[in-house]
Amino acid sequence: MNVTPTEVAIGVGGLLALVVVWRSGARRARRAAETARASARVVSLAGRVLLVAAGMVGVQWLVVTHTADLTLRLGVLALPDLVAAYVLTRALTVTELGTTRRRR
């Protein structure tokens, strides 16, 4: 079997092109996965905020409808405001956009 230098160069070039395409696909997939993780974090946080808010509304409704004590009513209405302010501040404050990996 006789292989010319041109055929060897074409074969090596083809293998090199295959490796480059393969690596770029892996990078693209990694970026897509990181983006999906970041959006999942936001959705997860929103779900937790809604669940806590529903719990607070339920407790407030029970206390307001079943008690006449003014101090208890004020406490039940003021405490969730403090918690909600903390949760909203935490949810709306962006400290980092996600983890980025740098290759050397």
From TrEMBL:
Protein name per the record: Uncharacterized protein
Record field: transmembrane: 6-24, 45-64, 70-94
Keywords for this protein: Membrane, Transmembrane, Transmembrane helix
Domain of life per record: Bacteria
Keyword Transmembrane helix: yes
